[in-house]
Design goal:
Blueprint (H helix, E strand, L loop, with lengths): L1 H7 L1 E12 L2 E12 L3 E6 L5 H8 L7 E6 L2 E3 L4 H6 L2 E4 L11 H6 L5 E2 L2 E2 L1 H15 L14 H14 L4 E5 L7 H16 L3 E5 L3 H7 L2 E6 L2 E7 L5 H9 L17 E11 L6 E11 L2 E6 L6 H9 L6 E6 L2 E2 L5 H7 L1 E4 L3 H5 L6 H5 L10 E2 L2 E2 L1 H14 L17 H14 L4 E5 L7 H16 L3 E6 L2 H7 L2 E6 L2 E6 L6 H8 L15
């Protein structure tokens, strides 16, 4: 009897699931059991098989072996329509949104309300606005997805799931693109959803979030199931050991900065907004010198993206000057800026970082294919490219099913991120612009990437970090500049400030314009 009662607690059971891709067993005989009304975290390194397992549950992949049960009965989930019919919803790590559609159109896509074949948006809009208000997911239903921030795209995905009245909610890295305030709000939303009886599967690399919000946590490593623990009985250190198989340092080891000559000097940079009439970036001036990591902190959507786009040549500034190593690059092309000494880890790895249908080796050589020995007489030289790619794959521990010839689209998000970081850091540029460099990475990979960024600083490079992760901002920076509504509203020393003070600047409640941006801290 006890056994029967225990089984009935599981709203979903994934039993002995095996999923194989060319060259890799992504899920190797994994069993996962979800109780009704619980928040169950799924933890693992990049490429451990977490997203694959959830994609099997959502019907995106068919497993080679194993079965799925709901309330004790076997179910066949052949595609996402089957999953939705079973009230399973999923917010994907890389959003599944139509960029030229509005927020509202994306939310109702596939379940459009109609009368006699005519679209009826009025009731749908009311339901979306009610859900938005109830869960604190502020969105503009009429905005085009291509014009909104990544954070708002995330909210759109969550509303899409709630609009369909799903009972089993899968969140794949839901906080990777959110600000600390938005993360706190999402944690509260998840708790209230669970309290309403919804069951949540929560993929994340962030141990703090698991400890705060989850009831239980299952750990995967290299495609295998390691174990399930009750959160109340474990620690962050124990979870990280289960995840990577060794102890992980959570603090960044770095000596005090030794700033040298100015590498980047920005004067009066102004960038127009694509979304509204105001400027997204307003008269920003700053300097970054050799041997220092300067971080631009702020809540997402306060002009950081537009600032980086103008700085790297992805968008045109309407005013101001950008000097790199004494050279005016304000009107230079992206490649000219690269040759002048700029490398860039972009915030959106799919839009600006990778060519998804190229192989890993071709993506790793994207910045260098025009140089010898990778080309000769205008012809690509495959052997040197393969050798170069293999070196970076080993050095940065980039995991892929077929090594250098793997299509980047088939790799996990974290390993895609490692590929970009490997390519940009290996350029050995005078200025490294790193935007959300550890987004979607596990604690072991974050530890390594942070050490690589510090190493660039110690080699005499200038590093401009743009991050929404307050722990990263405080741990990695030598100076912090806070951007609010397109302006630099404060400059602080991470050794002398607190997260709370930083939060006041980020919310626009405090300003510190007495110090000259770029002045020595």
């Amino acid at each position: 009897m006890a056994e029967t009662e225990r089984k009935e607690n599981y709203v979903v059971e994934m039993l002995n699931i095996t999923k194989v891709f060319p060259g890799i067993v992504a899920n190797d005989n994994i069993t996962l059991q979800l109780r009704r009304g619980e928040i169950h975290a799924l933890l693992g390194e990049n490429g451990a098989g977490k997203s694959t397992l959830m994609s099997v549950l959502f019907g995106l992949y068919q497993p080679e072996a194993g079965e799925i049960r709901m309330d004790g009965k076997r179910v066949d989930i052949r595609d996402p329509n089957d999953a939705n019919a079973l009230h399973i919803g999923m917010v994907h790590q890389h959003f599944k949104l139509v960029e030229c559609f509005t927020v509202l159109d994306n939310i109702i896509l596939g379940v459009e309300p109609n009368k006699l074949g005519f679209l009826q948006k009025k009731d749908a809009r009311k339901k979306v606005l009610d859900l938005s208000g109830k869960y604190g997911l502020k969105v503009d239903p009429d905005a085009l997805v291509e014009d909104i921030t990544v954070g708002m795209q995330q909210r759109t995905e969550i509303l899409k799931m709630l609009y369909r009245d799903n009972e089993i909610l899968i969140f794949d890295e839901p906080t990777a693109v959110l600000t600390p305030q938005e993360i706190h709000e999402l944690m509260q939303i998840m708790k209230s959803l669970a309290a309403e009886g919804k069951s949540i599967l929560f993929i994340t690399h962030k141990l703090n979030e698991i400890m705060e919000v989850s009831d239980r946590c299952s750990v995967l490593r290299k495609g295998k199931y390691i174990g399930t623990v009750d959160i109340k009985d474990t620690t962050k250190e124990e979870l990280s050991r289960m995840m990577v198989g060794r102890d992980v340092k959570f603090a960044v080891d770095k000596a005090p900065a030794q700033p040298g000559e100015t590498v980047l000097k920005i004067s009066g940079l102004t960038v127009p907004s694509k979304v509204h009439r105001n400027n997204a970036v307003k008269d920003v001036s700053l300097e970054v010198r050799r041997g220092e990591i300067v971080c631009i902190a702020g809540i997402d959507g306060n002009g950081q993206s537009e600032f980086v786009y103008a700085l790297t040549g992805l968008e045109k500034a309407s005013a101001g000057q950008i000097q790199l190593c004494g050279q005016d690059v304000s009107h230079a092309t992206i490649r000219q800026r690269g040759k002048a000494g700029m490398s860039h880890i972009p915030e959106d790895r799919h839009k600006h970082g990778l060519v998804l249908d190229f192989s890993l080796e071709d993506n790793l050589v994207l910045q260098r294919y025009m140089e010898a020995p990778y080309q000769k007489g205008g012809f690509i030289q495959r052997e040197p490219i393969r050798k170069y790619a293999e070196e970076l794959i080993e050095k940065f521990d980039i995991r892929s099913g077929q090594g250098p010839v793997t299509k980047v689209r088939s790799m996990s998000g974290g390993n895609q991120q490692k590929a970009i970081i490997a390519r940009e850091i290996d350029l050995n540029a005078d200025l490294l612009i790193a935007v959300q460099p550890t987004r979607g990475l596990d604690v072991g990979a974050i530890e390594y990437i942070h050490s690589q960024i510090v190493r660039q600083r110690d080699l005499g490079k200038a590093v401009l970090l743009v991050s929404l992760e307050l722990d990263e901002v405080m741990n990695l920076s030598d100076r912090i500049l806070v951007m609010y509504e397109g302006e630099i509203v404060g400059e602080v020393d991470p050794k002398e400030t607190t997260v709370e003070e930083l939060g006041l600047y980020m919310a626009g409640a405090k300003r510190n314009t007495g110090r000259k941006e770029g002045a020595a801290s």
